[in-house]
Amino acid sequence: MAVVAALPVLSEHEAALTYNITFVVPASKCNLNCPACFIKARNEVSKAEAWLSPSDYRKIITAAADRYEHLRVAIQGYEPLLPESWEYTFSILDEARAHGLSSSFVTNGTYLETRLHELISLEVGAVTVSVDSPSGHYHDLGRGALGAHAKAVSGLDKALKLPELANKMIVASMLQPHRHHYLDGMAQWLANRGAKKWVVGPMLSPRAKGTVDTIPDIFSTLYRLQSEAHAAGVKLVIDDEFSLIKDELPDKVSPLHKLAIRRLKRLERTIRFSPSGRASVGAEILGEIDHDMPRWVPAEESGDAFLERALA
């Protein structure tokens, strides 16, 4: 599961130069009830502190764009396309476009169909739709809401038919402990729909600092999925942003380097903002939010000064 919005893979040279700024946008609650929700587990959308405004998001993006030559902007959740969150999402994507920045976001897909043409006009760089199984039953079970799969697939199918979006669509699936069968047939299911980009990542837990060693047979499963994706003509990337999948895991069946793996370089250059302006940098993103983490309060500090402090 991606925690910085499945940012597209960069070359080694690009990755070494790039800063990543990612956001969780305000919402009273998500429209789904995923038991494995990373945002809920981190307590990122707390109402104990005042939230940033849409104009605040624009200010921090402008400050980052002025400060860093190579910058990417992303949105992770709760759900960026919720009606109550859309003003924030629009402001972030629009400001990124104004500065010529690469932008991306992750969505559960339930409102995707309603925003397709706006996303085209915003020139979003990548849209990642979370689909955890070709089976509606399994997906809805993991999302805590009946009909979530049908809505996500409907939006995905329509996006794939739009030439302005088709090549920007990515499907992300979570590999869950003891539920590997949820992904059976997924590669061919994607190919049948015309989806060519697939990201699979292990379920993470903030309370365990993101450890993945509780997932049995992780390597054999990942190799099987990669083989199925290759046969179906789908490009599969294993999502391991924080290099948590280790060669020394006991379930290793062949060298790890044979997998196509997406990892973030220079973790200290990745910052994630909660709606309150509380910021996590690098490996801090894997843990729960706490009050020792720096918080940007726009009325008290410029965006540039905060970025210098947080990313020092």
Instruction: Write out the strand line-up for the largest beta sheet, numbering strands in chain order.
Output: 8-7-6-5-4-3-2-1-9-10
Question: So how many helices?
Answer: 10
CATH architecture: Alpha-Beta Barrel
SSE pattern, N- to C-terminal: HEHHEHEHEHHEHEHEEEEH
Low-pLDDT runs: none
Helical amount: 25-40%
Judging from the principal axes of the Cα atoms, what is the shape?
A: globular
How many β-strand runs? 10
CATH superfamily: Aldolase class I
Q: How many structural domains?
A: 1
How would you characterize this protein structure?
By secondary structure, the protein is of the alpha/beta class. It has a single domain, classed as Alpha-Beta Barrel (TIM Barrel). The protein has 10 helices and 10 strands. Strands 8-7-6-5-4-3-2-1-9-10 form a 10-stranded mixed sheet, covered by helices on one side. It is globular and about 55 Å long. The mean pLDDT is 89. GO terms for molecular function: catalytic activity; iron-sulfur cluster binding; metal ion binding.
